[in-house]
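Researcher: Here's a chain I'd like modeled. Treat it as a single chain, no partners, no ligands.
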Amino acid sequence: MDGMSRKREKRRKPRLKKLLIFALVLLAVVLGGWYFLLGKLYAEMTYEEAGSFSDEPWKEDGVINILLIGNDSRENVEGSRSDAMILLTISSKTKTIQMTSLLRDIYVDIPEHEGNRLNAAYAFGGPELLLETINENFNVSVNRYMLVDFEAFANLVDGVGGVDLSLTGPELEYVNAYLVEYNMINGRPEGTDYMDTSAEGQVHLNGPQALAYSRNRYIGTDFGRTERQRKVLSEVIKKAPGALLKNPAELVDGLLPNLTTNLTKDECFQLSLQAGSFVLWDLEQGSVPLEGTYQPANIRGMSVLEVDLEKNREYLHEIMYGK
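Model: Modeled as a single isolated chain. Structure tokens:
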């Protein structure tokens, strides 16, 4: 290297150093601003601990498990049972987001109570006892939860502009049947949002229609109902990033005030930083119990599902940790 080249190299280094410092300061300002904004959004939610679960690590071996709990807003009182339980598994190891429905009629041991349906755990002790019951029966580590009511679910769908799904004629009829009750409870005129039952195939559902579709347990029993819930959530997850850019106010105002969680603000911030990569990950879904691992039974007058817990534990461990 000649003398002129060495002089140019000396001048270049301070410039690169200044550019690097500027970039780091800009990044800090952007992240600080986003953390401040997220703090404002986080304040719209309700933080509620679930016993000691909030003190336990929320991530294990690159896997985050969050239990999504849905309950009927009409019964959002002490003693109500969880209407939907979906285990959301976010794995940086497999680059997948897995939604696993836990059927509410699974017969399980509930700590300090008699054996009962899985959704009874929420009625007996809220999210804390439900998490404890799932962990003990399925030998998994689930420490975080998000609880939403029916109204929040409908608002979430509306916030992303609705969802497009393929419905059969009978499914459309049940959408209208469930809307009868929804309209009465919410003081809406009779017939609001009714769907054309002859228009089976690909249809667009708004929030109340998607909620009615998700509540239907008469086609395909509870397995069909939980599959419909996952279909709606899958479409919402796909559309959420775009909705946040185009219409953040409706999405935020409709969902967050109706959401309760034990996720901390810092944990939500960490999730938000990964959100951009999530759109590139595979979105998978399933349900527990697996086909062939259960049988209907009647225990103490309750219609329940007796489940081979060991086989379902193996399934959950495989989708969570790949083993």
